[in-house]
Every structure is written in structure tokens, then in C-alpha cells.
Amino acid sequence: MISYIIWNVSPEIFTIPQIGDFGPFPVRWYGLLFAAGFLVGQQIMIHIFKKEGKSLEDIDSLTLYMVLSTVIGARVGHFLFYEPEVLFKNPLEVILPPYAGLASHGAIIGIITGLLLYSRSRRSSGQTFLWVADRMVIVIALAGAFIRFGNLMNSEIVGKPTDVPWGFVFVQNTEFRQIPRHAAQLYESISCFILFFILLWIWNKYKAATPRGLMVGVFFIWVFTLRFMYEFLKENQEAFEANYALNMGQILSIPAVLLGVYFIYQSRKSSHQLAR
Prior knowledge:
Elements: E1 5-7, E2 12-16, E3 25-28, H1 29-51, H2 58-81, H3 84-89, H4 104-120, H5 129-153, E4 168-170, H6 184-206, H7 214-230, H8 248-275
Helix pairs in contact: 1-2, 1-5, 2-4, 5-6, 5-7, 6-7, 7-8
């Protein structure tokens, strides 16, 4: 007898009732988890800054850079990679609600841009791009775990049909609720949690002596190699992807993995130079 998991969780936690002309406002698991990524991440960065003797006054600025660059990058990335016709016809869709489309590859590009801007004026304090990025990927891995779990709570980004005993029937998803499917969101969430602990262990071991670019390289290789493989288990996000041998997520993951290899190479090169 084949068993499977009936997933019939409402994406809404509760609804704030209407107040005058405003509302009602549904509070959703995805939004709560998305925000938790920033809030918990900020506390982790405070801990790291304290341990490495960096100014805590920079934390608020770093958090603001990350919030803006993540959201803008994810929104622009979604339209650029998946709905380019909307981006060019009506660019205001990027900033107007509802914010239904967020692309993780776009978020990464936005975060890199934000870190470059943040670190530009802080090199004298030792906060170079790679110093900040190596520590920020710890937070990003945890946030990624939260966000992918949020996708599970939304019953979105579902996997392909499966007969494995841990297959999920997504009752709330009216398009794909008929048969058990891979819980690809959960796979990615668990992978990001594992990566978070790996990166935290690396930082705890080396702290200020962490080879520049090492953790960034590990992050890119881990996340986007697994993303490439998990895409084989997912339903395509957009209809046009059916015409490709690889979907958009896989195409975008290839250069990201290569970038990770480059960062690992550079970290080994820099560590060898310091050892001389």
C-alpha cells in the first residue's frame, strides 16, 4: 500500500480585521518567514561583528542594504528571467503589489550589488566585499531555508508526481493537488539549513582567519548544484520552459556554480600567499 502526506495547510495564519477604510489584512506564513530571515540574520551578524571587533553601528546600515537589495533583486530577477515582456511593457509592476513573483537568482544578484555598495566605504575598517560576503552567506543560507519553507506553507513551487512514501498531496494548490508530488520546497529548505550549519562551523573554526572567498564559494557550489538537480524534480514555473532541455533555474545555476569554483580557487590562492 502506497502512503503519502496530505498537505492541507492554509497559507494564512490569521487576518487582521478591517479598520475604517483599510483592510482586512491577511498575515501569511511566507511573509512571516521572509521577515524572520532578516530579523534572525541581523542577530547573527551582531554576534559575528562583536566576535571580530567590527563596529555594531554598521549593522543597521548593512541590514537596510540587504533588505532593499534582496527584494529589488528578487522582483527584477523574476520579471527579467521569467516574464520579460511585463518588465519592458510596465516597469512599475516591479514595485507595485501584490508581490507574487520573487526569483532567488535575482535576489543573489541584488545581494552582491548591495554588498559591493555597502563595503565600498568601509574597506578601511576591514569590511571588504569578501569579508562581508563570507559572513553574510551564513545568514543567506538560513534565510533561504526560511523562504523555501514559506513556499511549502504556500503550497507553491511544487514537485513532479512521485510514488515515494514521503510524497505530498498539495490540497491548497488547485492546479497540482490531485496526486502525490515531490516536496521540492522542503528538500531545498533542509539543504539550506544544513548549509547554514556548515558555514557557521567554518566561521567558528577560523573567524578572522577565514580565507577570503571560501564561504562564498562553498555557498554558491552547494546551493546551485543542488538547485540544478532539484529542478529535475520540479514542475516548470513558466510555460516557455517546456521548450528547453534545461529550465531557467538550471540555466542560471550553471554560471553560479562556476562562480563558486572561482571563489574557492581564489580563497586557496590567498591562503597560500598568507602562509608564505
